[in-house]
Amino acid sequence: MAKKMEKAKPGTLGKVLRYIGRYKLLLPLSLLFALITVALTLYIPIIIGDIIDNIGTGEIDFVYIAKQLLLAAILIGITAVANWLMSTINNRIAYQVVRDIRNDAFKKVTKLPLSYLDTHAHGDTVNRVINDADQFTEGLLLGFTQLFTGILTIIGTLFFMFYINWIVAVVVVVLTPMSLLIARFIASRTHSMFKARSETEAETTALIGEMIGNQKLVKAFAYEDDAIKRFENVNSRLQKNTLSAIFFSSLVNPTTRFINSVVYAAVAFTGALLALSTKDSAVAFTIGELSCLLAYTNQYTKPFNEISGVIAEFQNALACASRVFELIEEDAEISDEGNRVIGEAEGNVAFDNVSFSYTPEKPLIENISLSIVPGQRVAIVGPTGCGKTTLINLLMRFYDVSDGAIRVDGDDIRELTRHSLRNNYGMVLQDTWLKSGTIRENIIMGKLDATDEEIIAAAKAAHSHSFIKRLKNGYDTVIGEGGEGLSQGQKQLLCITRVMLALPPILILDEATSSIDTRTEIRIQKAFAEMMSGRTSFIVAHRLSTIKEADLILVMRDGHIVEHGRHGELIERDGFYAHLYKSRFPTEE
Questions:
Q1: What's the CA gap between 38 and 310, in Å, rounded?
Q2: Sorting pLDDT into bands at 50, 70 and 90, what band is 589?
Q3: pTM for the complete prediction?
């Protein structure tokens, strides 16, 4: 019953109209100027026809003709201004609508769970927000520009044609709809083609982004030829899909033009016969009226041609819009609205029988339980794929546990707001993340109100101050996305500086010194030791020094903690950790 009562979700067009409905003040203005444009455009042929009839009388009134021409010129000027105002308003509506849609799409990207981003090509997501939205704008703008005026022109010309001569008007009404039927037939078959083109275009964007972002890897493994083959394959499919969509949609215009030419010829022929047959009758059909009808026939058939083109283009726009709306309607991560805001944590962390898997059929972490007290340094070790990074993802609540609970200071982290929870974490990963902006802006991300003295002190502690001062503008040096212009080691030092400045109660270090030279690492390890004093620390590392100094070593294997204890204890047990340790560090006893 609930399913029956549930309202059906609107289609793509309905969703677009909801966005357009936000601009209720601009829509009537656009309609008003469209009405003025059409009314004056339709009145001008009457003036011209009147001038022709005046000339045909044999007694030409030049003063009257001059006045009529002046009136026609004034009306043409007003029509031009009204048309410009209508186009300006339509532009404003179209670009505000696409701005709103793109904003909603980007907001959804920030709220998407990592499971979505991990399973969808980044290039495809980018393509939906940028390219698909752009193509949708073009179709929407075309629709606004031609739809209003087209419909009003059809209604207006029909009225005037029936007013002048109903016989000719009937000829026009009978023949013209053929162009719309043909356009609809073609457009209904091009929608899927345009959608396939958009999807292939997204695949192309994703591949280009992948190759550019991994050029070092491509060159290192001589993958250039394979990359070119992959691109040629995708690009060929893009060409095929694009040509198919454009070919079939391009049939609309010549077909409707042919129908319109037939209509024009039929009106001319019928009108000429009427003019000859009524020449000497009391109700004569004049040449001026015939010229009016021919002009109206052109104006009447033109919107059909334009609307036919709009229908084909609108199919592309709706195909692109549907892809953007698919992104907007993706399930966001579980809302934490109403959850409790946690202040500065003490650092108690507990895993209560935690289980988790990325896919139900492939269990990863099963039944993990452990309790960590404030100030403990916990090293997480194990072979690749054992669940070390997944454990950190669960702790940060990038993913939620499938079963059990993770608690910070006794609170289930699912009952806390993500923002307040993550404010208590300081994280340094092997993969650095820096945004476009100054060095200073990148450092203060975790503490926006930091003073220059605090920033410099943190940089000195992280051993980044010396290289920052050597940059052209020091802390005000602008770096590109991903830290362009800096070495990998310098990028990682900035990420460490960021954590040094914030000094949160819980630290997460995942190969934090992997890109730093040994000499600098020794210095940073001392800084880390001071920073970790009194703070709960989780360390994912392979370096001997980091593992040996930990208060607790968690040894993971196939998603389970198979051993735990201090380094010496685990070596004495001669279990999995001892085997792992000896195989990895055979010379470091």
A1: 18
A2: very low
A3: 0.63
Q: Would you state the pLDDT for residue 2? A: 35
- The string of pLDDT tens digits covering residues 375-429 is 888 988 887 778 788 888 888 888 888 889 999 988 999 998 888 888 888 888 7
Residue type, 57: T
Instruction: Give the pair of three-digit tokens for residue 175.
Output: 């023949």
Q: Are 349 and 505 in contact (CB under 8 A)?
A: no
* Residue given tokens 């707001």 in the structure block: 417
Calpha distance 414→342 (Å, rounded):
12
What are the phi and psi torsion angles at 341 (to 5°)? -90, 125
Among 356, 305, 364, 336, smallest CA distance to 421 is for: 336
How far is residue 155's CA from residue 50's CA, in Å, rounded to a whole number? 22
Question: Rounded to whole angstroms, how far apart are CA atoms 518 and 524?
Answer: 10
Backbone angles phi, psi at 554, to 5 degrees: -100, 120
User: What is the token pair recorded at 384?
Assistant: 């690749």
Whole-angstrom distance, CA of residue 149 vs CA of residue 84 = 13
Taking only the tens place, the pLDDT of each residue in 277-288 is 765 554 456 677
Whole-Å CA distances, 531 to 237, 443, 504: 55, 16, 10
Conformational region of residue 328, where left means phi above 0, alpha means psi within -120 to 50, and beta covers everything else: alpha
In angstroms, the CA 566 to CA 381 distance is 12
Q: Which residues contact 371 (CB under 8 A, 6 or more apart)?
A: 348, 349, 350, 351
412, containing H or E segment: strand 411-412
Beta bridge partner(s), residue 377: 537
Q: Report the DSSP pairing between strands 403-408 and 411-412.
A: antiparallel
Residue range 234-248: mean pLDDT, rounded: 84
Rounded to 5°, the CA angle 341-347-350 comes to 90
Q: Where are the alpha helices (DSSP H) in 382-533?
A: 388-395, 418-422, 439-443, 452-461, 465-470, 488-502, 518-532
CA pair distance 423, 418, nearest whole angstrom: 8
Domains and CATH numbers, the chain: 9-328 (1.20.1560.10), 349-424+552-589 (3.40.50.300)
> 3-state SS string over 25-77?
CHHHHHHHHHHHHHHHHHHHHHHHHHHHHHHHCCCCCHHHHHHHHHHHHHHHH
Q: Which two tokens stand for residue 60?
A: 């030409």
Query: Regarding beta strands 437-438 and 536-540, do their DSSP bridges make them parallel or antiparallel, or are they unpaired?
Result: unpaired
Q: What is the dihedral of CA 274, 279, 280, 286, to 10 degrees?
A: 100
Residue pair 206/331 in contact (Cβ under 8 Å)? The answer is no
d(C-alpha 177, C-alpha 300), whole Å:
11
